[in-house]
Amino acid sequence: MIDNSNIPDTLDISNLIDYIKILKLTDPSDKPISRIDQLYASDNTYIAIDAINTKRVNSYSADGSYLKTLMEVGSDKKQSLNVTDCYQNEKNEVIIYDYAQMMLTVFNPDLSVKKVIQGKNLFHYNHIASIPGTEEYVGYASYNLDNAYLQGDEKNPSNLDVLNSKLDLTKKILTYPSKFEGVTLITASKSFFPYKDSLRFFRTYDPYIYNISKNQIERRYKVLYSKGNFPSDFLESIVANHLKEFKETGSRSYPLQVIYQYCSGYTCPENWLESDSVICLSSINFLDRSTSITNTVVLNQAKKRTVLNAGTFVAKNDFKLSFPQFKAYDKYNNEFLASCTGNQLKKRLYKGSSLINLQDIVDDSFYLIKVKFKPKQ
């Protein structure tokens, strides 16, 4: 249970932190990124994707030095037409998903290109991930991605599909009534998190965190809030009575206004990161005219589970830092990762912090904040 009845603006978690390290990412002038939408850590390598502005995927060494640009939008056949998603599989391969071409580019651990897989059908998915222990993939499609007609089954649209090694559809997992196809809803920047020999799957408006393994998909966790839980049948209980409004696309802002109006007061998971002893969860809170984010740290200790919530976590005592939202988990170093620009970092450091000298911070550069929590008590 997450008590969101009275969320503090900040919460000091200094006593939970083993260490914090700050790492500057160095970009060349001709291949910069201007935001980090997704972040991944492999063995001695970091991958950052800017899916909105530069539409570029850059890689960095363990010391933050630029290695290479893995993909960027361009007209060349070797380049992507639409960089929307990037992830790493259990083999430590980097895989970049091109939404426009239904194409996966697979990179070896040394970041050389291994192969390119292009589906014969242009199915549209927000996110794709490899299913551990198999050659299969799983794709998540929001309600406004019209896949049913491409799949030859307009009566049976699906949010979650299994694809074979050639990206052919083999199984629909989470189907929904066709009357809801085309509704506009908010989609998170990622929907999958690899955990050991399985995948965690999560989506907005759904209280469940699913586990996808070689043989099955099952509900692993249910995220409950003290107030504002989305009903498990939110399509029928919230959307069905306002279908016309949710499908209206007359102006860019109108769909968001509808979402804020009819989902106001509800909260649901927005991102999920997990280690053996710590879960870092962020939740999206729907307000009348906007949204806000609540951050949660769940400590799975030896004899109890502790749940901590705040708008922002801080470490005032030892490290003197206000944390950005965690975006990734580095399983190789057991570190949770956040990112921000140098200008933002200056504002997040408290006076007297020994983590980095203010004069050494470059405003327009990106920095990783690497946090290791103390082991189980």
From TrEMBL:
It comes from the Bacteria. Pfam families: DUF5128. This is 6-bladed beta-propeller protein.
